Amino acid sequence: MADEHLQPGEDEQLITLIDDKGNEELYQVLFTFDSEDYGKSYVLLYPQSAEDDEEVEIQAFSFTPDENGDASQGDLYPIENDDEWAMIEEVLNTFLADDDSHLEDK
């Protein structure tokens, strides 16, 4: 289901999000993936200012990739479907479990 995973530090991408009040915050791309079921690309982001041991809220959006397949340019779209959210959470949980197992191997 997940076609592409960006590992932190490996082609680091940053995206600026602007909230309803016009405040800008810089986010780092955790990873991107494509869903054949929904025919969309997704990006998961976390605040760049987050500390390594800090629990962070991860933002998820669908996006239209640029010519390089990146999410750093172009439009992000909110996830409004509960089934899509469930699929994204499943992919995120798998990513986090894989990331934890890589850390334990070192």
TrEMBL record:
Matching InterPro entries: UPF0473 (IPR009711)
NCBIfam families membership: PRK13678.1-2 (NF010215), PRK13678.1-4 (NF010217)
Give the similarity note.
Belongs to the UPF0473 family.
Q: What is this protein called?
A: UPF0473 protein IV56_GL001760
